[in-house]
Amino acid sequence: MAVFQQDDGAAADIVVNNAVAWHDWTTVLEQDEADYDSQFRSSVLHNVLMAIGGPESASCDPRSAGRSSIEGSRASTGI
């Protein structure tokens, strides 16, 4: 696992790499295949963006007028 650094060169305080798309709760065996696929893809995308740009690429920036940094990273990387 790579160690991410903040703009000032300090190591990131917290990195969470298990965020997934939200769907109504159900058991794994009862879950719709499309919901499972969506959760898997969102988890993989989150990890890819974290590797590309560090924690800032997968967080919401209040200065972005409602547009999350993850959307900007996706646009800049073609993902």
From TrEMBL:
Residues 66-79 have a biased composition (Polar residues). Residues 56-79 are annotated as: Disordered. This is Uncharacterized protein.
